[in-house]
TrEMBL record:
Residues 3-146 form the Carbohydrate kinase FGGY N-terminal domain. It comes from Photorhabdus luminescens. GO terms for molecular function: kinase activity. This is FGGY family of carbohydrate kinases, N-terminal domain. Belongs to the FGGY kinase family. SUPFAM superfamilies: Actin-like ATPase domain.
Length: 149
């Protein structure tokens, strides 16, 4: 019985395979190809490319584990540092590049949300542009072409 652990990181994707005693059998790592603008405000990546990479890495580590001890995978664990916004259409197809939690494009939207949902309503002392709701508001205000999808 082998276990695969997958870290869906901001800069790297890492996939490790362990035996039932949690002894590491192998680890693979791939760099995440992010698109960043010059000022570092926008951080996006291709959803399909990211998913294909994860799937291939899981398959490779499963094969490595099987060769190491002739055992099958019984569990796949996924972890990640923070949320990423992925917009899908009705067919669950991505309609925009994924927006990383590191993306800071929604500073203006933070101010708008804070003025409307201040501390006495939400309990939040501060709104920051890494929060998904601020990115969703940015999309709503700046990407009118996506609203009809």
């Amino acid at each position: 019985m082998n276990i695969i652990a997958t870290d869906l990181g901001t800069t790297n994707i890492e996939v490790s395979v362990y035996d039932k005693s949690l002894t590491p059998l192998n680890t693979l790592s791939e760099t995440v190809n992010c698109n960043r603008n010059r000022d570092g405000e926008l951080v996006e990546f291709d959803v399909d490319q990211y998913f294909i990479c994860i799937k291939e890495m899981i398959n490779k580590t499963a094969e490595i584990g099987k060769r190491a001890n002739n055992e099958n995978i019984i569990q796949i664990v996924l972890t990640g540092q923070a949320e990423t916004l992925i917009l899908l259409d009705q067919n669950k197809t991505p309609i925009h590049p994924a927006i990383s939690w590191l993306d800071m494009r929604s500073r203006k939207e933070c101010d708008k949300l804070y003025s409307e949902l201040c501390y006495h309503i939400t309990g939040q002392l501060k709104l920051i542009p890494t929060w998904t709701i601020t990115k969703m508001l940015w999309i709503n205000c700046n990407k009118s072409d996506l609203q009809s999808v």
